[in-house]
Amino acid sequence: MNSQNKNEKSEHYYEYDRNDLSRKNPFLNEELEKIRNEGGFEWTPLSDNRRDTTNKVIANILIENLENLLGGKSKHYMCYDKTSQHEKIVIEYNNKRITQENYD
Fold first, then answer.
1. Are the beta carbons of 72 and 94 closer than 8 angstroms?
2. Long-range contacts of 69-73 (CB under 8 A, 24+ apart)
3. What is the pLDDT of residues 43-98, one digit of tens each?
4. What angle do CA 80, 58, 44 make, to 5 degrees?
5. Bridge partners of 33?
6. Rounded to an integer, what distance in angstroms lies between the CA atom of residue 75 and that of residue 89?
7. What are the angstrom distances between the C-alpha of 5 and each of 12, 14, 15, 21, 40?
């Protein structure tokens, strides 16, 4: 154990009172503190392009998680016919080889 007295604090110790809402935040620099005091940052909505990109990233993460949970593989298909086109995602899992014993 340290030879420091129990009442002495480390030089890295910071008196942090979580319940004092008027305290100065030690993690914000002066510019951010000024913005906070003036009401914070203005919220700006995502553009359609950014929203679409974000949704695709989220969907890909969800598909990857489903693959991991089910122990399967996903396949992405582009489907076309005479009048339309669409995309399809198929997750194949629980593949087993069928033998004659399975039919009995």
1. yes
2. 70/94
3. 667 677 888 888 899 999 999 999 999 999 999 999 999 999 999 999 999 988 88
4. 110
5. none
6. 6
7. 15, 17, 17, 31, 42
**What is this structure's pTM?**
0.49
Q: What's the Cα-to-Cα distance from 78 to each of 12, 61, 63, 82, 92, rounded to whole Å?
A: 58, 20, 17, 14, 17
Residues whose CB is less than 8 angstroms from the CB of residue 14 and which lie 6 or more positions away in sequence, other chains included? 26
Smallest CA-to-CA distance from 93 within 71, 65, 63 is with 71
> Residue 67 and residue 91: Cα distance in Å, rounded?
7
